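Readers outside the structure-tokenisation community will struggle with the description of the input data as it stands. Showing the layout once, in full, would remove most of the difficulty. For illustration, here is how one protein appears when written out as sequence plus structure tokens:
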Amino acid sequence: MKGTLVYLLAAGVCCVLASPIDLLKPATTVVEISPRAELEDYRLNDDVMPSHYDITLTPYFEDEDSHQAFSFDGISVMTFRVTKPDVTNIVLHMWKINITSWYLKRASDSSDVPHGVESYDEETHKLTIPVNQALAENVDYQLIFNYVGILDDDMHGFYRSYYKVNGKKVWMASTQFQQTHARRAFPCFDEPRFRTTFQVKINRPATYKAFSNTPIILQTPLSNGRYQDEFAKTPAMASYLLAFIVADYEVNEKDGMGILARPEALNQTDYSLQSGIDLLREIGTWIDYPYSSVPEMTRMYMSAVPDFSAGAMENWGLLTYRESNILYRKDDSTSLQQQRIAAVISHEIAHQWFGDLVTCEWWDVTWLNEGFARYFQFFGTALVEKNWDLGLQFVVEQLQGVMQMDSLESTHPMTHNVYTPSQVSGIFDSISYNKGAVTLRMVEHLITTEKFQNALRQYIKERAFKSTRPENLFEALNEHGDASVRDFMEPWTVQPGYPLVTVIGSKDGYSITQQRFLVNNMNHDDKTTWPLPITFASKEADFANTKPMIVNTTTYKITVTNPEELPYFILNNQQVGYYRVNYDDDNWAKISEALRSENFGGIHVLNRAQIVDDLFNLARAGVVKYDAALEILDYLEDETEYPPWLAAVNGLTTLSRRIHHEDEEKFAKYIVQLFSKAHGLVKFTAPTDEESRLFTYLRINVLQWSCNYGSITCKKAAFDEFVRYYEDPANKVHPDLRQVVYCEGIRQGTDEHFDFLWEQYMSTNMATEQILILQGLGCAQDREQIFKVMDAITSDDIRPQDKNTAFSYLLLNPYTLDHLSEYLRTYYVRWANAHGSYANVASAFNNLLARMKTDEQMWRIRSFAERNEQVFGAAAYNSIQSGVTDYFTNQNFTNKHREVIGGFLDKALAKNNSAGKTTVGILTLVAVIVALLQ
């Protein structure tokens, strides 16, 4: 699964505009509710083992006889056996369904089995059925349930969604069962280790169609005007992989692949159809286990769902997607959106093997599903889209991205105990996804791609139709690598965090030491160590060697002849290893000089990105002084490649939030100066067919930062383009320029310009275009316009799946913070109703507190929370208080580093002024805008 929609605010603006990765975590923080039962009580035992479910569902989209609209009737027949003697209780899951009758029978003759009165635990979702005498082993029994469920609108379980035709809502129903929501559609053993077959029947209205994991084998008209669609039996699989859709959808189908979509969107499915065909073939060939090897899987469908909580979901044979992750049209979607669509499809197709065919035994090892899917999201897509440099993108987006979370004391290891539904949901994070993929990449480079591929082929064949644990993977890797692969890999999976490797030069080489990197506490006494994959380079040719030696000690000496004669000594070629590196002053000086020389001294582009990311974070941690780090990073003025600039944007975004509010103007001038050469390189122009994909992404980053921080040239070009579009809507802006153009149109424009773009949002048929417009609307500076967006977020105008996204774009705009605070303090009840709880109000306030820079801003929120403590409840109130504590921590950081950072900015700007360059800061933008509008 791609996880819930996320634009990683902590990782920076770049991840909003240029990351094709997941949409992974909520834009707002979830308030954890303490478990109210013993942790072990949330898990099922293995006394009972189900083998098959027959499920019949009848959904209602309007009142029908005695049935209420948005409900469904269900009949479930579960076949099971006991696994041991003396079993007198059957315990399984159900949630939010009302059982009207149930029966326990012996399968062979349908005879009743005497039983007691059932009981239900609302906290653990466990239904317990007592029997009067122990059930016999090696005998099939059946539990038959008649029940009623709700087609809710929260995008979980069997839920309702809609799309509009000629302004009228057309209802539909879809599913999202991962992680613990199959139990909302039928009583079941809702844990991934319980693999069973399923046979589904859907009783649908005559005007609808039904779809499930397997094809329809029988269609029967019913007496009430409905039709019953019976689907073929599935392979044995976990309950969370079952799926069904009831909708008036059409299918674009060829070569065993089909895209399901609302009729008006079918013209947006050609790219995803061909991409799916190609990826299913190539990944199946790479793994040497074609998708068709599973007899029941005679075709694959992928469906675009209007309301979908996750980015996508890997239901076996019926993949479901958010519309923006599968619907594409070249003239209305950006290059990055195209890449995101291919990457998400690759991710979900990879799950057909890693997750569906072979399933993690429990969610504590979610990374065995999601780490592989994330790996193939990049390296599987690269099998089909060979010119996108996905391997380069992987390092900055995945490896460097997860390092942010994994450097906090609150992180967790990849293999991590979870019990409650909330804990299970929480582990679907960047540790399971990104770090899982990063660790697999490390192993691949350790044992070579060929051996890695052979090991995975063996692993898939041996574990097919079974559950898996890490030791099963380690055994296959050991067999094809050597006996030490497990010794290398396992510590990275069971230990949280990662090391900082410090390199100190001497007369005969370099000494390296490792210490856990905690960005907010480098004075810790944590003695954790990792097996270090060590490679190093002192000239351009060296960077090609990515096969490491493994260092298992806390300290290590690398012997080098005449190290003082080397131009530099850089550790971790192409950043294959998952660690940061710090050097002594002499080596940092050499690296800095090399970066300013021709061809950047031959330093590989990924190692330049590594240096950029490491320096920003070493400065944050107090390992390197900010002025020293920024002096080296000033080389970026001449950088021409996307990966180092993406790393820089991440670092600069975090730094911008810690700049003292009185220093923001000179920071803005410095940003324009830093990006000026890159701006001249990329130019404000639409991409050509000949330019590389990464150059297009570089342009988007550079133009956004140049415009945001006040480049007159950038702002004028973007606003002129918006005005042209406003005056002639048929002449659209090139998709790859829309983000910048829409933003400047709103930032510099009038209420008429705002209303024009909002009308485009309401009328477009493209989900990808709606996302671009929400980004543009997020650039509003006027209070009334900001309130309009917030009103839309709390209304039906912005779909539930996009509400957090829209809010995240407003948060990225520093001009909105006071207005957002005012809105939330005034309309907090409306916000809670729109998002489902006061926990989401608290999360919104915490996101504001993380970006605010004055005590006055903070006190408004703190005082408001204290006045409304009873309304919010303890958990939400305490969450806001925690946000206030974090605010003071951030302020202390800002004040601690202000003098050093300010001194660097003064020096950099003085150098710039002496060179006769022209920049403009935030406080001068009003004059610029007035001039542009004349």
